[in-house]
Every structure is written in C-alpha cells, then in structure tokens.
Amino acid sequence: MTRLRHTRAIRLLSRFCADRTGATAVEFGLVAMPFFTLLFAIMQTSLVMFGSQALQTMTSAGARKIMTGQMKNASFSEFKNALCSSSGMSAMFDCDNVFIQVVSFPDFSAASTQMIVNPKCFKREPQPTAADCWDPGTRQEVVIVRVAYDWPFAVNLDDVSHKTRITAVNASRNEPF
Questions:
Q1: How many CA atoms lie within 13 A of 44 on its CB side?
Q2: pTM for this prediction
C-alpha cells in the first residue's frame, strides 16, 4: 500500500512539474506593470507632441491675422476668443488654460535683444491684463506671439493634477496695412 502511494505521489509530482498551463499568466504578471507603464508613457508623449503641433498651428493662424491687419483694432480678449474659437482649438484645448502674449518691436534686431517674455502673461493669478500682454503693433513692425497651454496628463497614477506647459511662438513682420 505504501509503495502504491509512493508511486502515485511520484506520478502526481511529475505531472505537476510537466504542466505548463499557468506559465503564461505568471510570465505576463511579471512583465505587465513595465509593459503598461511604457505603453502609457508612449501614449502621453504622443498626445503632448500632437497638442504642441496643434497649438503651433493655431498660433501661426492667429499671428497671421495680426500680420495682415485683421486684428489691428481688436482687443486682447477678442484675439483670445478668435484664437480659441478657431477650428480644432476649441475641441482640443480648454481656453481657461491658454495664456497669450503679443509684443511688437520696430525691427528684428530690437526683438532679439529685449526680454520678450512677461511672466505676468503666463500666470493664472493675478489675471493678466491687456496692457501687459497685448501689443499687436502697427504697420511694418515685428510682432512676436507666444501662446502657452497647461496640458493635463492623460494617465495620472498618483491622483495629483500634474500638467506640463506646452508653448508655441511665432515671429513675423506686419504687412503695410
């Protein structure tokens, strides 16, 4: 009887060692966390790059309106509304998180030597004013348009509101309008 039990135990042990049906689940369990982390990182990077390109396209379109004189009598809020209501911008970006600065210079050499970033224009509090952030210039002046957006992370693992700031810049000379 003991010999029969011993033989059964050996057969059971050999069958258990030869069974590979759960190996795939165990192996996937080992690589799942790094795999999904890498997958989410790739998706987040591609979303930020896509958003950056879309923001640059919208900034160029807005700067073109300034360059051609379509915004010469517009206010800062009218320009921001025009930028935010353009195709694609309203669907992709929350206009409350869009920061805009438009500055003008007499020529390109003056634009390169002066500080062109006004920190007041890129803060939520206190609210940026048109006097600080809106100078579309006159005819033949160089205009630099900076638009920034606080892009939220698509996958947030630690429940903290992380955002990354994407920025688009366009420098152009106004036409003789």
A1: 16
A2: 0.75
- At 21 the three-state DSSP class reads coil
Terminal Cα distance for the chain, rounded: 107
Q: What is the pLDDT of residues 60-112, one digit of tens each?
A: 999 999 999 998 888 888 998 888 887 666 678 888 888 889 999 988 888 77
88: left (phi over 0), alpha (psi -120 to 50) or beta: left
Of 62, 60, 135, 75, the C-alpha closest to 105 is: 135
Q: Is the peptide bond before 128 cis (omega within 30 degrees of 0)?
A: no
The residue behind tokens 């957006």 is 149
Q: Which domain holds residue 78?
A: 5-174
Number of domains the chain contains = 1
Residues 23-47, buried b or exposed e (16+ Cβ, 10 A)?
eeeeeeeeeeeeeeeeeeeeebeee
14 has a pLDDT exceeding 90? no
Of the candidates 76, 58, 62, the one whose C-alpha atom is nearest the C-alpha of residue 132 is: 76
Four-point Cα dihedral 105, 112, 82, 66, nearest 10: 40
Query: If we measure between CA atoms, which residue out of 174, 149, 169 comes closest to residue 92?
Result: 149
